[in-house]
Design a protein that fits this description.
By secondary structure, this protein is α+β, with helices and mostly antiparallel strands. The protein has a domain of about 120 residues: 3-Layer(aba) Sandwich (NADH Oxidase). It is built from 6 helices and 5 strands. Strands 1, 2, 3, 4 and 5 form a 5-stranded antiparallel β-sheet that branches. It binds flavin mononucleotide. Flavin mononucleotide binds next to strand 4.
Length: about 190
Amino acid sequence: MNELLQHLDRHSTPAKALDEPAPDDSQLKLILKTALSAPDHGRLHPYRFISIRGQGRHRLSEIFGRAIQQREPEVDAAYLKKQKDKPLRSPLIVVVVAHLIESPKIPEIEQMLSAGAAAHNILLASNALGFGSIWLTGANAYDRYVCGELGLADNERIIGFIYLGTPTLDIPPRPIPEVSNHLSYWE
Ligand SMILES: Cc1cc2nc3c(=O)[nH]c(=O)nc-3n(C[C@H](O)[C@H](O)[C@H](O)COP(=O)(O)O)c2cc1C
């Protein structure tokens, strides 16, 4: 029951309201162990993670900057800075990468869903450990240059950038829709 209530309380924290300390390496490994326990047709574990902290965030910031300049060559300096500052907002970013495996039985969509479930487990586990988190994508997640710089192969896709840290804001409970609006019965 406690776990269920904790899941009802899950919420995202804006990336700019995530500060040090972030999960340390052993806490991150525990969080990622829960990610690896996500449902997974065929036990392919079709995903991997990239942990980015410290100077790594500055490398990602430069990559985001170059990607935006390629997509929008006319971009003004203020917008460019805002985009480059994004990876610097939180102390830790976990990039969740779907690693799609050719399989006659398990289509890509199922593998992407497994990777999404792994990403969600990262949110739940980080919240359970008292950390805040948010799952972000945006154009950079689907940018070939960004994917290349992060070392993704042709069969890999970015599922999300999960920003992690200690919340500096109290987030009010978020409204949860009425279950009855999303449920029908066949009995
Ligand atoms: C696949 C995926 C991608 C998302 N990308 C973004 C994003 O780029 N920017 C954003 O503001 N929220 C994004 N979100 C939504 C946030 O992660 C978050 O769920 C939302 O702000 C609502 O907050 P809550 O999780 O507390 O309900 C994304 C969510 C998912 C599942």
